[in-house]
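Support reply, case 0932

Customer input (verbatim):
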Amino acid sequence: MSIQEFDRRAVRASVDVVAEVTVDDLGRPTPCAGWTLADLLAHMTVQHHGFAAAARGAGADPEIWKVKPLGSDAVPLYTKAAEEVLAAFAEDGVLERGFTLPEFAPPEPGGKPVFPATRAIGFHFIDYLVHAWDVARSIGVDYRPEPDLVEAAWPIALAVPDDERRTRPGAAFQPGLPVDGTTSRFDRVLAVLGRTPDWTPAS
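Our regenerated output:
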């Protein structure tokens, strides 16, 4: 199965989870340290816009990646952004393109893309597989990604750099946690990316 299809399924699952969010939920805490659910949805939305732009050769523009508050329209704005990035990733020839992702690495001299498409879409895939869990935990709904998605995510999670970038304000992933004692492969994915698998809003 292609990385685009893995990503499409993860994003669709995230849309289903986000559809459960109400305006009253937006102030809830999330597994992302210091982020409310409103903050998390704003991050998820702008990342869709940024990756869509990168797929179309415009990822170097820093304005595209600036997080903006979504207010009470957070859910429909997220859904619209998800459709945008899925359309961008489905375009003919997208896997032959390079992606400029300034949040991951600065553009090369002359603004040339720095990531092959497959790797860039893999970043997006792991982000939304995990962020869907973040949203689900925040609002207390069930979220169980399909086993083949988890298996595809495992090597990508291990490849995400676990360095000082994870300690910066606004980092999407926290420093990795020990995986000993985790009960499933997905729990291991979560731990590697700094999540406590049994996190609840009262944690």
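We compared this against your earlier run and they match. Two observations from our side: The chain has a mean pLDDT of 90. The two ends are 37 Å apart (CA to CA). Please reopen the case if you see a mismatch on your end.
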